[in-house]
Amino acid sequence: MWLRFSAVLLLAQMLTLPVLHAAEPANSGAAAGGADGTDGAKGTDEPEAIDRSPRVPTFPIKGDLVGELGVYETSYEDTFAGIGNRLALGYLELVKANPGVDPWLPGEGTLITLPRQYVLPDARREGIVINLAEYRLYYFTDNGVQVYPVGVGTAENPSPLTNARVTMPLESPAWYPPASIRAEYEASGGFLPRMIPPGPNNPLGSHALLLSEDGYLIHGTNKKFGVGMPVSHGCFRMYNEDISRFVYQVEKGTPVQIVRDAVKIGLSRGEVWLEVHRPHEEYTGEDRDRLWQQVFTEVEAFRANHPGVQVKRAAIELAVDQADGIPTMIGERVTQMAADKTVDDKTPESNAEFEQRLYF
Q1: Is residue 303 predicted with pLDDT exceeding 70?
Q2: Nearest to 209 by CA among 249, 162, 176, 158
Q3: CA 160 to CA 152: how far, in whole Å?
Q4: At residue 27, what are phi and psi to the nearest 5 degrees?
């Protein structure tokens, strides 16, 4: 009954969200007009100011939960890759959030979920946090947090789990491929020069942030497909439309934490939220078993650290079965502990109501 009520409540919330229509112009970050960056209007030589405001919202932080789900209405020619590029979302996060929808031909008038609600990763809330398990970058500001999709390293060339800092922003960077990557090209019969100059063929895209972790950058890309997926040799890829604005927000010395947090659990206004991420588009039984064990461990640790929290096993199982990266409410705080001032008081329910629930 509780799950049925939760599903109805989620549906009602989504129906009240504004629908983004395919015909509406997207904020791509590129000025309309001439290729030289001017406004292209006749009779004026005044260049249009460069828009360096972020393409993504800055969400206020509400406990451990931020953002809200959105809805988008597709047009016939849409693909998830194209929608992701226009709306600053990753390909895989759109696929996981919309089961049963063809990512390459969603069709005319299909309503898809925009997964812009997040449980914050288990990391310090400062500077940049990159969570490899969800292919997302979190940037904490004085007003809240911005969330961007990023491409990360493959299993063969993983991104490092480390604490680093931003050392330098780069405009129109040249790429000096390391010897290992040049050797890969040669082994496959190709050739890679020692330096690739700035331009449309440069894999670093239009801008980059150099990190103190030797050899690693947060950078743009000359390939629109791959952001929000495990595709790189360890660096972090952003859409050019995002990185070209992001580099002007981030100061030298900004901390960068790189974590792998596939199971995120947190409190917001007395509610317990769980977010589970499968590693790939396909969801194997092996992946599910591994995530279930991780969820079990995380939930038990969370309950030990938050006395008075009650969670429901059926809701947890649903979150693991879907592993879609969308936060699921799995319980609530039913008592307020004297030493815990992090959430509002919740009214305890009767023992009879407790007995009717299957708790984890």
Answers
A1: yes
A2: 249
A3: 10
A4: -80, 90
One-letter amino acid at 329 equals M
Strands 136-141 and 144-149: antiparallel
Q: How far apart are CA 272 and CA 291, in angstroms?
A: 18
How, if at all, do strands 271-276 and 263-268 pair?
A: antiparallel
Q: Which residue type is seen at 243?
A: I
For residue range 120-148, list pLDDT tens digits in order. 999 999 999 999 999 999 999 999 999 99
- Burial (CB < 10 A; 0-12, 13-18, 19+), residue 25, is exposed
Question: Can you read off the two tokens belonging to residue 142?
Answer: 């004085």
- Spatial neighbors of 186 by CB under 8 A, at least 6 apart, are 192
Q: By mean pLDDT, which of 4-18, 234-248, 257-271 is the weakest?
A: 4-18
Nearest to 120 by CA among 61, 180, 64, 52: 64
Residue 224: CB atoms within 10 A of its CB come to 14
Give the residue among 257, 276, 279, 275 at the shortest CA–CA distance from 266.
Answer: 275
> For a pLDDT cut of 90, what percent of the chain falls above it?
64
Q: Which residues are catalytic?
A: 219, 235
CA distance 302 to 54: 34
Longest dimension (CA), the chain: 77
**Tell me, what's the pLDDT at 32?**
32
Contacts of 195 (CB under 8 A, 6+ apart): 174, 175, 176
